[in-house]
Design goal:
Strand order of the largest sheet: 1-3-6-7-2-8-10-9
Largest sheet: 8 strands, mixed
Shape: globular
CATH topology of the largest domain: Rossmann fold
Structural class: alpha/beta
Helix content: 25-40%
Number of helices: 9
Order of helices and strands: EEHEHEEEEHEEHEHHHHH
Number of strands: 10
CATH class of the largest domain: Alpha Beta
CATH superfamily of the largest domain: PAC-like subunit
Strand content: 15-25%
Length: 357
């Protein structure tokens, strides 16, 4: 039995909505630091929105890669499972401008039919351009503003100014697939790529989310909320700085990334994204990006737990042993020891990212 585009979705209360912009982000695709995911969540949390369409998960999802979440209470499984969901919402920015936002789990199957359905809905809505949001791991330090690169379906859509010449090949996320197919139907698309420090790629990085929303607002002439993300970015910046100050090895590597960033950008903020995932070269005395990421992830998790338990401020980690209570973060040596134990299979896995959207 063949599946048509119309079979893949059910209309919502805002069916027939009009909007000139389609914004796309799928969970599970390229998104270092959760940058795109948190940006979409910030919009949905802060702005008025209504459902336009809900897509058929049973037709589009492989439940082995998007397993439903089940709750068991006192050994009784609840029938209310949380199913993977892909939806199209109508969102209004702070000035009332309408935006169609396609988000949720990235479908596993029927990409062509799904894209045809999105294209038909978009054409009826009057969509003129599409945007997608991504976080991309890059050799940038957390101490510099987040660069946002632009990828387009047509060269005429690229912004004027200097962009580093590049040639990349990578497995396409569905958002890029949709934008290319819609570009073939005459609706151009821009992908906004927020450069996330390699060592923050596996940890929620709200600075990149804020940069993505700011860039989207500029390109699309929208008024979008970034306050919560900026607050989260400032909090993370403070905690990371405390960690870096207490660890000369990490500090040395971050300084090297700063020099590299400043040399490349010359103040323009343009820095290459090597191979969409190749880590920067580090010297023998530098810590590898993954090592830094492990240390920072573990430390931020402890800071978060300390604040949840005690609600107080967190002191900078010291290299000298201290008699700390259970509600305070450990010293750098303790964190590094646990990271080493984890590598040797003697400790727990990575902690849950902070600033969950």
């Amino acid at each position: 039995m063949s599946i048509t585009a119309a079979d893949l979705y059910a209309d919502g209360p805002a069916v027939g909505a009009k909007a000139k912009i389609l914004l796309i982000h799928f969970d599970g695709a390229i998104d270092a630091g959760g940058a795109g995911r948190m940006a979409i969540a910030q919009m949905l949390r802060s702005l008025h929105n209504e459902r336009v369409a809900t897509f058929d998960a049973d037709a589009l999802m492989d439940y082995r890669s998007h397993r439903p979440i089940v709750t068991v209470d006192n050994w009784v499984a609840s029938p209310d499972m949380v199913m993977p969901e892909t939806v199209l919402d109508l969102v209004e920015d702070d000035m009332g401008n309408p935006i169609l936002v396609l988000h949720g789990a990235e479908p596993d199957a029927h990409w062509e039919s799904f894209t045809k359905a999105i294209s038909e809905i978009s054409e009826r809505a009057g969509v003129e351009i599409t945007f997608s949001l991504h976080g991309v791991p890059s050799g940038v330090p957390h101490t510099r503003p987040t660069p946002v690169h632009v990828q387009a379906t047509d060269a005429s859509l690229l912004p004027s100014g200097v962009q580093v010449t590049n040639h990349m090949q990578f497995p396409s996320p569905l958002s890029t697939f949709v934008q290319i197919r819609m570009g073939q139907r005459g609706i151009g698309g821009l992908a906004l790529l927020g450069a996330v420090p390699y060592y923050m790629a596996d940890t929620a990085y709200p600075a990149a989310s804020s940069a993505l929303l700011t860039s989207l607002a500029k390109f699309a002439d929208l008024s979008l909320p970034v306050g919560d993300l900026e607050q989260g970015a400032a909090q993370d910046q403070e905690n990371i700085e405390k960690l870096v100050e207490g660890n000369p090895e990490v500090s040395h590597t971050v300084s090297a990334l700063e020099e590299h960033f400043d040399a490349w950008t010359g103040g323009t903020g343009a820095i290459p994204l090597p191979g969409m995932g190749e880590p920067p070269r580090v010297g023998r005395d530098d810590k590898a990006p993954k090592d830094i990421g492990d240390v920072i992830e573990a430390y931020l998790a402890q800071v978060s737990r300390a604040q949840d338990e005690g609600g107080g401020s967190v002191n900078a980690p010291s290299r000298a042993p201290q008699d700390q209570g259970p509600s305070k973060p450990d010293t750098i040596e303790d964190v590094l020891a646990r990271i080493e134990a984890r590598r040797n299979g003697q400790g727990p896995g990575p902690s849950t990212p902070r600033h969950r959207a």
